[in-house]
Queue: 4 jobs
Job 1
Amino acid sequence: MNLARWLPSQCHICRAWPAQPVCDTCRACFAQPVARCRACALPLAGGAVLCGACLREPPPMDESLAAVDYGWPWSALLAQFKFRQQTGLAAALADLMRQAPGAAQALDAADAVLPVPASRQRLAARGYNPALLLARQLAPRRAVLADALLRLHDAPPQRTLNRRERLARVQGAFAAAPHHAAALSGRRLVLVDDVMTTGATVRAAASALRAAGAAHISVLVLARTV
């Protein structure tokens, strides 16, 4: 049992006390469901299912699910989680991800959950992989394959790159671990990350899983940039 869920805390957004790390009022205000492209999770208006880019070039994943748009207050909360050692936020952030439309169904149907692996430099600097912490919170009773997806080379920071440049940087960056071949081939997988920006990283990771024979790939992230 995760006792942190039951202990008194303070909301990291509105500072209400006592409350969960993200209180119900802030969830209601800042985490309203948004219609999104089924393939890349970009906000989508007009009742369409897929955005134009995904219609022209279908991505390797079957669906992408995001809980919130990347922006305040979630950008500040993610900064605490990723860069200020606030690993205790993993449970609250995973709860938000599980409430994204379609997320609970994807997790229930999954044979395994995989985090996007962190680069060696970031893992050494932080001491943990945020995606792995989220994956373990999302799937406490399912297989979390922390080492089934390998990062073959580390891409330099991509914050200043456009989508085409990011796609080029991460091409061939991932591969499925040979000793996990049986756990991936023909399976339904959920690929977990904290933020999807252009989608280049999760596309490269999903391509590696598809090459390993995955039958269905759902990408689940907390936040999607718009």
Job 2
Amino acid sequence: MKIYTSESVSIGHPDKVADQISDALLDEFLKQDPKSRVAVETMMAHGVAIVSGEVTTNAYVDVQRVVRSTIKEIGYTSTNVGFDGDNCGVLVAIQGQSNDIAMGVDTGGAGDQGMMFGYATNETVELMPLPITIAHAIMRKAVEVRRSNPGLGLRPDAKSQVSVIYENGKPKSIDTVVVSHQHDDFDALGAQIPQAEIQRRVQEYVIQPVLESYKQFIDGDITYHINPTGRFVIGGPAGDTGLTGRKIIVDTYGGMAPHGGGAFSGKDPTKVDRSAAYVARYLAKNIVAAGLAERAVVQLAYAIGVAQPVAVNVDTFGTESIDPDEIVNRVRKNFDLSPAGIIKELDLLNVTYRPTAMNGHFGNNAFPWESTKVAASLK
């Protein structure tokens, strides 16, 4: 028996606010100029958002407007909740992409070196690991509940964590659920809200509706830790600094697969940190969907300025139905894994990227890299 744990964070977590701002800016640049080269980083701190990076584009984007509107859409509209999108400071330090980098990218090469991993497993319908799937579902529900029922006093910042017992490599039961949710200190009448009441609201409105969909994994008592510090009023950028790319494990597979270390948000698809990670997931998911393995990791490696990957590897953990070397051969035969080939295969210039910065980049069938349309060609 082993216990595997994964976490997720809400759209109001300061790191996720930073990710969403970076991707909202990317969307604006690409909408006006699909050839834009964008690498935007955001830092959130108490009362200020700082945007920096490298952008080469023919577009004009009102950066301050995008930053403020994104913050307000998330729910930070007043200093009462810790941050005010209308009145916070916005500092911008953006320059053009280095000509030295552009030399390699202009010829179709990768925008950087590095390793990218994609993972898939047949333990959920999304072909994602169960712990991160449930953790994301809890955070999606938290946002839904906060927006539809403001009287509950829930604020934008939140985190979840789910531990699952595995036996013989398969998920057996949910062991522990942790949720920390920012909340109002006082109710509408000015009375302080007891922590027991906050815990009840989170349990009843957020956690239990999600677990109803995973009854097959409830076997005995589940341990719950809801706001275990006893209070979570100060949250968001007022409580912690946020940075683009600091939740890369939340963004991917919850620690159940390797990670090359590169962040995704704020980067256009010429950056293989993002596009190659997407195509690696696409390949892994289609390998599993085709029945070639029960779970698979696809690893790609690139050199800056070089179009094709310097390495393509597939690990099927002994769950394969055919020789793993044959799976690699089929991948190489069927797919152009250059940046241009990936962009074309996944139509990455016509993707709205901000939703990827909300509840993970994988497992959402609205994203083109989640399609299983090539399973037949691999099979």
Job 3
Amino acid sequence: MNGKELKTRRGTVYYWISRNKNPNTKCIVFTHGVTADHSMFEKQVEYFKQEYTVITWDVPLYGLSRPYSNFTYENCAHDLMRILDQEKIDKVILVGMSMGGYPSQEFAFHYAEKVEGFIALDTTPFGISYYSGLDIWWLKHVALIAKCFSANALRKSMAK
């Protein structure tokens, strides 16, 4: 993987690319979850780089992509588009893990013609229109409920 960077007015976004020698190969973009960085997908990169061009990146405010101002998923999507432009990549297969599904979905919304597929790993639909009133009520109270558990108990319950 070759480490590269995209300089924006909001901050520098770091990404890594393994370019397949075949110019007609498809490109997979892996987007990590909230507690991770680009290295989260190293085993998948090893596997897929034989047949695909592969990009991983540190989403703004994560890993090396700090500092970064005015964070929004929309800005992330536009930054990802600039990365693809910089690399001269026309179409992508998006893989988003948990929070990584949100910039992926935002990208697909703004640049649908660039997306060949989207693989959602443990993520949810982006936007409140997909959720019931009860879902939203529970989400608003997650922080309060989480305070009832120690950090150790939360980690163990999430692992199970």
Job 4
Amino acid sequence: MKHLAVSCLLIFVALLGGATKLNACTSVIVSGKVTPDGRPYIFKNRDTPNQDNLVVSVQGSRYRFMAIVGRQDSLNLNVWSGHNEAGFAIANTAAYNLNGQQKADQPRPNGDEKDGNLMYKALESCATLTDFEHLLDSIKLTKGTLHSNSNFAVLDAQGGVAYYETGNNGYVKFDANDPLQAPYGFIVRTNHGMSGDRSLDQGIERYLAIQDYMTRAGFENNLDFEPIIRKVTRTLTHGLTHLNLWDFAPQDDSQPVYFPFRDFIPRWHTASAQLIQGVRKDEDPRLTIAWTIPGSSLTTPAIPLWITPHGELPQIVTRNSQGHATLVDAGFQLKDQLFPIKRGNGADYINLARLINHAGTGILQQIEPIEDEIFSRAKQVIDTLRKNGKAGRETTEFYRWVDQYISEQYEKRFHLM
């Protein structure tokens, strides 16, 4: 049966050919009405050929914000997800069906930059969903077009959480708090909008995968944030074929074992992931938390980040003296072990033995205990911050610990950093 399953997967990948878009993110928004702690969140798994990402803190015209940006963007003018000190958060996914066939076939680099700059403007100036709507309206009024083809996930400190399917000519709002639009309190988006030309849908396989997880989790009353950033980002079950790569895990990593790796939620093109957890209405908006994987989700742990008055960050997730993020660079080196084939379609084939195996020596299996300790330590700090109602010295101490602990663990386990 295993041989038959592998053959089916190989055929499936071959039939896909070059149809899948490279700018292909996976996202979900969740109302605080259905989360265990009453805090809403938005999530984005970012897929892009521009792999080198990092985290920055920026003092905008009105608000300070924290965001994921591309390393090459030295001025931080294009952000890909983030939140500000008012508790406003935003992320996007490319939607290839909102402006018709002609726009769907065009490359997205210029469109990506416009989306990134729009999110920069939103983070520096918006506090609520209404503010964001006013921003979109003003751009449309001034320029005559929104220059967009995207789903924007937006969250605020008042409990608002919605998608804005945004095309050149306007936007359609989908509210996670509206029981008619989101009967189970969550909404999923990948690379199509429900208000667009459905014959142009992209990202179907990943949509099926995350929709299946969210539906099951909702029925089990388990829409907690932690499994999303830790498990969904690394799910090895294909949304269309339902093949689970854990079923094919080798005994050890002594020999390469290659498997097709196409259109899973994590991909070769996954550059970062971020789950931004909002606050309850009685909490300081500055306690909004960005649970952030700044590189490949298969080789990099998630780290909680929140805004401080002076913009402190762990040093390993932001620009170092060479302009890189140290943790992201280390994750790249590990990803090269997962995808060592550099010619042809090598990015579609993963060395499963180096990812997971029964001996427990896979890269992902060694990342998880590092992350366990980060989450355990973070819980203590976050509980203190929420009790005190604001960020304090605990933040600086935690960020310093993150730098030291992750550096030590990557040196010990992988001889990196």
